[in-house]
Design brief:
- A hairpin with a 4-residue loop joins β3 and β4.
- α2 crosses α6.
- The protein has three domains: 94 residues, Cytochrome Bc1 Complex, Chain D, domain 2; 86 residues, Cytochrome Bc1 Complex, Chain D, domain 2; 45 residues, SH3 type barrels (Roll).
- The strands form two sheets. The chain has a five-stranded antiparallel sheet, with no helix packed on it. Strands 1-2 form a two-stranded antiparallel ribbon.
- The longest helix has 33 residues.
- The protein is 42% helix and 12% strand.
- The protein is of the alpha+beta class.
Length: 283
């Protein structure tokens, strides 16, 4: 056999072995990645969120900020990879890092630790992914009715229209925000539910929620559920006080246990298939 041909074949064989050696670790890494769950096995488990919080502050907060809202690196509360991307893709991003950037890979972390971080990040970015509040939702449902909340708010398709619908409220708002809304209703008024007080030329005083207005008319929903349409030419005055029609004394009216149960009930309104925006305007 020609010596040059034999030498070529030897070099080819050595090259094949070297290529296989290079590919085996990559294949093993891919196999390890594909072996991780497609969805977070811990979900919004409180212990997982707490563990993720601790690990995030140990490894990530120096760049992403104490509340993951950005510092030297991206705001993870708003980034697409956390809010809308797949959890599998987010897992891979954390595991592999981003080449060419300051975000390093995390080859030493067990899968469960990465999932813990994902649980924590999603609890910050998505209200519906927060751990469930402690309390008795069934007892909270009774408090919701007894305190008069159902006369103004819809839950599970039933209730009043004077206030915003609370169907899926915990998908829309974090538990802390819901608590603030209950205890300090005047702090942030819900759009479309502004209070209005009018006096007519014939001496009537009408209070309620302003549902619509134009150059010539105003439409008011009263506390009694009556729809009142008035021409502006009939009005002596129209005022919109910067306060909610919701009672502002639940902090003193409700016992601590009742308040906790009420918040637990509202926290369970997380059905993503129930319209979040629902109320008078669509009935």
């Amino acid at each position: 056999m020609d010596v040059s041909k034999q030498s070529f074949r030897n070099r080819l064989a050595l090259g094949t072995v070297a290529l296989a050696s290079a590919l085996i670790p990559a294949a093993a890494q891919n196999a390890g990645e594909s072996g991780s769950a497609a969805e977070n096995p811990f979900g919004r488990d409180p212990a997982a969120v707490q563990a993720g919080d601790e690990l995030f502050h140990e490894r990530c907060a120096v760049c992403h900020g104490q509340k993951a809202q950005g510092a030297m690196a991206a705001n993870l509360v708003r980034t697409r990879s956390v809010r809308r991307g797949s959890q599998k893709a987010l897992f891979s991003l954390i595991r592999q890092g981003i080449p060419g950037t300051d975000m390093p890979p995390q080859p030493d972390l067990p899968d469960e630790r990465i999932w813990h971080v994902i649980s924590y990040l999603r609890s910050l970015a998505l209200p519906g992914e927060q751990p469930p509040l402690q309390g008795d939702p069934e007892a909270g449902s009774a408090v919701f009715r007894q305190a008069g909340c159902a006369s103004c708010h819809i839950v599970n398709g039933t209730g009043g229209f004077l206030g915003p619908s609370l169907d899926s409220i915990a998908v829309k708002k974090a538990s802390g925000r819901i608590r603030e809304d209950v205890l300090e209703p005047d702090a942030e008024l819900a759009p479309g539910f502004e209070s209005v007080v009018v006096e007519t030329l014939d001496g009537r005083r009408i209070e309620g929620v302003l549902k619509n207005e134009d150059t010539f008319h105003v439409l008011i929903l009263t506390a009694g559920g009556e729809i009142v349409s008035l021409r502006r030419s009939e009005l002596k005055s129209l005022a919109m006080p910067p306060r909610s029609r919701m009672p502002a004394d639940y902090k003193t009216r409700l016992a601590s246990e009742d308040l906790g149960n009420l918040l637990a009930f509202l926290d369970r309104q997380r059905d993503p298939f129930t319209p979040v925006v629902r109320g008078f305007s669509v009935y």
